[in-house]
Structure formats: structure tokens, C-alpha cells
């Protein structure tokens, strides 16, 4: 079974520096406000476990993911000044992931190729 789904999801995990939780959560509100206006953003949100944060986000395709990174680049730089990116996963079909290898190389992500499934 193959899939025709072009959706790409990105899963960044952050470790928030001591004393920076309020500042990080303020940035999360700004991230969400910007992402909510992106036409190709399917879902977006932050989850927390103590000093760890995870951003759950999905886009129609690789282009949507890259457009998002352009849109929030300044916020991401601020977040990375008060939190460490400890893991980054990118999930999607191989044809879309190929468009992301070079632009995301600086973040050293793990790429997971979608081979089976569906999306409604």
C-alpha cells in the first residue's frame, strides 16, 4: 500500500533553560499566532513536560513547512537563545522530504519516510 499524502510534519523538542519558562511560553503564543495565518499549516501547538517543550506541527507539503520556517525565523532564533533544540524529527513522503534535506541540514534532523497510510 502506498500513500498519496504530501503532508510533512516537523517535531522539534526543546529543553528550556532554568528561569526561562515564562519567556518561552510567551514565544509559543507568538509562534501560534503567526502559524494560524499560514494557509498551508494543517495543525500547530506546543506541549510541555517539565522543562521540555514539544511543538506539534504539520503542513500540506514541504513548501508549506519551508514557508513556515521563513515566517517564524526571528521567533525561532529567540527560542534557541533560551532553549536547546535537543531533537528534531521530520516526517513525510520521500518526494517531499527530498526538498527539505538541504534547507534543514543546519538543524541535523532525523528524517522519517512515510510509506503507508492515509489522511482525511
Total E-strand runs: 5
Structural class: alpha+beta
Order of helices and strands: EHEEHEHE
Distance between the termini: 16 Å
Q: Specify the number of helices.
A: 3
Summarize the structure.
By secondary structure, this protein is of the alpha+beta class. Helices cover 33% and strands 33% of the residues.
Descriptive notes:
The chain has 120 residues and is an alpha+beta fold. Helices cover 33% and strands 33% of the residues. It contains three helices and five strands. It has a five-stranded mixed sheet. β4, α3 and β5 form a beta-alpha-beta unit. The longest helix has 21 residues. The radius of gyration is 14 Å and the shape is globular. The chain starts with 7 loop residues before the first strand and ends in a 7-residue tail after the last strand.
Amino acid at each position: 500500500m502506498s500513500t498519496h499524502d504530501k503532508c510533512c510534519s516537523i517535531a522539534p523538542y526543546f529543553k528550556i533553560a532554568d528561569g526561562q519558562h515564562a519567556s518561552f511560553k510567551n514565544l509559543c503564543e507568538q509562534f501560534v499566532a503567526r502559524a494560524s495565518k499560514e494557509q498551508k499549516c494543517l495543525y500547530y501547538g506546543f506541549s510541555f513536560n517539565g522543562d521540555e517543550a514539544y511543538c506539534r506541527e504539520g503542513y500540506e507539503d514541504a513548501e508549506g513547512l519551508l514557508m513556515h520556517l521563513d515566517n517564524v525565523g526571528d521567533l525561532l532564533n529567540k527560542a534557541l537563545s533560551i532553549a536547546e533544540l535537543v531533537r528534531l524529527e521530520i516526517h513525510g513522503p520521500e518526494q517531499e522530504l527530498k526538498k527539505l534535506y538541504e534547507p534543514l541540514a543546519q538543524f541535523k534532523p532525523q528524517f522519517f519516510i512515510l510509506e503507508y497510510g492515509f489522511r482525511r
